[in-house]
Amino acid sequence: MDTEADPHVGLRGARAPEFQRVAIAGSQATNGNGAGQAHGRWPAGTIASRVLVLNASYEPINVCNVRRATVLVLKERAEVIERGEGALHSERLVFRRPCVIRLIRYVRVPRDAHRRKITRKAVLARDAWTCQYCGSQSGGLTVDHVIPRSRGGESVWENIVASCAPCNRKKANLTPREARMHPRSRPRPPGPNVFIRLASPRIPVVWERYLVAA
Ligand SMILES: [Zn+2]
Q1: Domain ranges for the chain
Q2: What kind of architecture, by CATH, is found in domain 120-179?
Q3: 138 CA to middle of ligand 1, Å?
Q4: What's the Cα-to-Cα distance from 119 to each of 78, 139, 195, rounded to whole Å?
């Protein structure tokens, strides 16, 4: 099971008994509503509920919610590396809300784990919202097939780059050689950081050091 890319797979369907009695206090503090008003429920969909999951090697591999993070910690699959505002209470334990957790056992992430989600947003994020032909960062970025589809180019990470609209028009159905337009950096499948940044609208400050390191 430790070869799975998704650290939660092994927990699907499993529930930590302790978790049934866990309630959260102070979870609303970050919203300015005062602490201690959220007993018995978890803040859903808020940035406060996002937890960065690091591999045993400290590489960031995923984002999960506080509920999953808590289960992983209670089952001793993960340890808490950074804590945030708010505390989790149960009959037998109290601990502050995890912000960053680290898996105890190393999980091998297949090299193609992130290949599936080719979206315009992910391509632009990978390329730092920069046209790969002229370096422009102005708005209206599109994605371009380096080898055009009409010339047999595939829709894979290695053949798609961010391109400004003028470059996209200029390149049209030409190959890089014909157009004399070559991507500045060789397009590759992005690492997990790109998806972590896309999954979390705002990156908590405490996450940054772990993302930079990757
Ligand atoms: Zn351009």
Answers
A1: 9-111+192-213, 120-179
A2: Orthogonal Bundle (1.10)
A3: 9
A4: 31, 17, 11
